[in-house]
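User: I want to check something. If I give you two sequences, will you return the structure for each one separately, not as a complex?

Assistant: Yes, each is folded on its own. Here is the first sequence with its structure:
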Amino acid sequence: MFMILAKFLPGQFTLLFFSLDWHADFHAPTQAAFWGQLVPKEHYVNASTWNSSLWQVAAVIGPAMGGFFYGWIGVFYSSLVVCAFIIVTMICYLLIKDRHVDYHNKTESILQSLKTGVNFVFKNQFIISAISLDLFAVLFGGAVALLPVFADQVLHVGEQGLGLLRAAPAVGSVVMAIFLAFHPPRKDAGYKMLASVVGFGLCMIGFALSGSFLLSLFLLFLSGVFDNVSVVIRSTIIQSFTPDEMKGRVSAVNSIFVGSSNELGAFESGVMAKLMGLIPSVLFGGGMTLLVVLITFIKAKKLKELNLP
C-alpha cells in the first residue's frame, strides 16, 4: 500500500507514510486478544496448529508469488495485488461479530497496564518457561545468519545451494504443521516442547559438524520440524493460560522477547563467529540451547506435567 502511495506523493509525504509501517507492531498483540474471543478454549490446540500451518505455508508460498508477480507485472502492479489482499482481509475482519469482554479498569494508566502484563508473564511458570525456551533457542541456537558463510566456505554450494539451505527449515515447519493439524500435541505437551528444543539444538550441532550438503540440508529441515512443535505448544500455552483481558498485554510481552531474539540471535552469531570461529560458534550455540533446556527441566516442574486441554 505504501509503495502505491509513493508513486503519487512528494518525497516528504512518502517518507511519512513509510514511517507508518510501525502499525505491524500493534498487530500481533491485537490479533492474540481477538483470537481469544473467537476460539473456544477446548479448540485452542487445533486453532494454534492450523494458524501455524497456514502461516508457514504462506511464508513459503508468499515470497514465491511475490517474485512471480514482480517479474510478470512489475513492482507497482505487484503492490496493487498486495493492496487488494489487504482490503479483502479488512473486509473479512469487519464481517466478524464482536463479543464483548466485561473488563475495563478506567483507573489503570498505560504504564500500570504494561506492568500488570509483565508481572503476569513472570509469575506464570507455564508462560515464562515457554517464552524463555523459545527465546534462548533462537538467541543461541539459530545459525540462519551464518548460512551464507557455510554455503560459501564449508559446503561450497554457491547461491543456489544457499537458497535451498534457507528454504529447508521453512519446508520442515510446513510438513510438521500439517502433521500437527491432524495430530495435535495435547498429551505430555510440556515434555514434547522440551524434547523439540533439544532436537533443535542437536540439529544445530550436527549442522556445524557436517561437511555434506545433503546432510546439512536434512538437519536444517529437521530443525524446522522441531521448531514448529515448540511454536505450536508455546502459542497454545499463552492462549490457554491467559485471561481474555490479559491476552493483548501478554502477547505484547511475548512479541518483545521472541521478536527481539531473532535480531539479537543474528548479532550473537556474528560476534561469536568472529571471536570463536565459524564452526565453534554454532557448536557453542547448540550447546547453550541444550543447557537452557536442562535448566528449564530442573526448575520448571509444572511444565513437565503439562497436558493441553
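And separately, the second sequence with its own structure:
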Amino acid sequence: MAKNINIKSIALLSVATALTLGSCGDDEPEVNVPVTYEFLRDGASTVSFTGQTTRILMAEELATAMKDFDQSDTDLQEMFANADAVGGDVSPFSDADLNASTKSIRSKVAASADIFSTNTAEAATIKSQMDQWIAAQASEVFLNKEELAEAGKAGQIADGTSTRYISAKGLEYNQAVTKSLIGALMADQILNNYLSTTVLDEASNIADNDAGTVADGEAYTNMEHKWDEAYGYLFGKSSSTASPLADLGADNFLNKYLLRVENDADFAGIAQEVYDAFKEGRAAIVSGAYEKRDKQGDIIKEKISDVIGIRAVYYLQQGKKAIEAEDFGGAFHDLSEGFGFVYSLRFTRDEGSNNSKFSSADVESFTSQLLEGNGFWDVTPATLDAISESIAAKFDFTVAQAAE
C-alpha cells in the first residue's frame, strides 16, 4: 500500500497539518502537557487547593446532617456559615480539622467575580435562600418526621423501601441545598471565578507568571494557584488528584454527577475532556501560552455547564415518569434533586460571554412553576416537559438524550 501513496497528497497534507497546528496562537510558546496533573518547580509540587477540599468536606457533613433528626438548626447553620469559626462555642463538624478551619461554605456561595461581584443583591438573596432551606429542614421537616405527608403538610412519604421527608410542597430541603451547592458553590467558583480572566490575569499575575515569580512562601505563581483552585472544586476529594478519573464519583457534588453524565452513552468521554482541558490549560500557564489557556477554560465552562443542564432535565423527566406511575414518593425525590439542579442553572456559563446561560428570572420562572400551589403534589407532566424543553434549548443535547 505504501507504494501507492501520492507524493503530492503528502505535501498537501503536511501543509494542512501545519496550518492546523499554527492556526491558534502562532506567536505563543510551545506547551508541553504532562501525562497527569502534576506540575513541579525546583522539584516541589506547585499544585495546591486545600481550601477547596475543605469546603467540599464541610458541604458533605452538612448534607449528612440535614438528614439527622438529632441536629439542631444552630448546628446546621453553623456548618453552612461557620460564623463561630475557631475558638467559638459551636463545633458542629465531626472532623476536628473542619471545626478548626476559618473557611466556610456560605462565604463562597454566589461569590464569583464575573457574575456576582457587581450583583451583590442577588448574591445576598441566594445565600438567604439557602439559609431558609436549612432552617426549614429543622423547623418544618424535623418537627413533622412522624407525620404522614400530604398536600400542604410536611412529613414522611414512602419511596419503595426508603422513606423521604418532605416539605408541605413535597420538596426535600436537603436535596435542594445539596444540589444547589453544585451550582452555587462548585460551578460558580470554577466557571465564573477561578477560570475567569478577571481572576487569572488580576493585577501583575501575567508579568509574575512570565517571570516565574511565586507567591510569598509558596512554590506556585498566583495564576497557577487560581487555576488549581478551580480544579480543586471538581477533583479536591479524589484519592489521586493527579489522576482523578480513576475514582470519579469521589464526592457527592460535582464530581459525582460528572460520573453520572459520563455513564450515559450519549455523553461518554465528557470526563476525559474536562480533565484534559484542566491539564492542558495548566500546562499552558506554565508555558505562558494564555490564548491556549483560555481555550481550555472555555471547554471546561461548556462541559461543566452541560453536566448541570443534563442532570436538571434528567431528574425532571424521571419525576414525570414517577408521577405518571403514581409513585409519588419516588417522584418527589427525583423532583427535589431536579429542583436543586434547576436552581444551579443560574451558575452555568454562556459561551463567549461573562454571563450565565440562564438569568435569575429564568430560574425563578422554573422554580415557581415547580412549587406553584401545592408544589410537587400539583405539578403536571406537561409542565415538567415544558421546563425540560426550555432548558435543553440552551444546550446541544435533547430532552430524550438527557432523560435516559
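Because they were folded independently, the notes below concern the second chain alone. Strands lie at 40-41, 44-45, 155-159, 162-166. Residues 1-25 have pLDDT under 50 and may be disordered.
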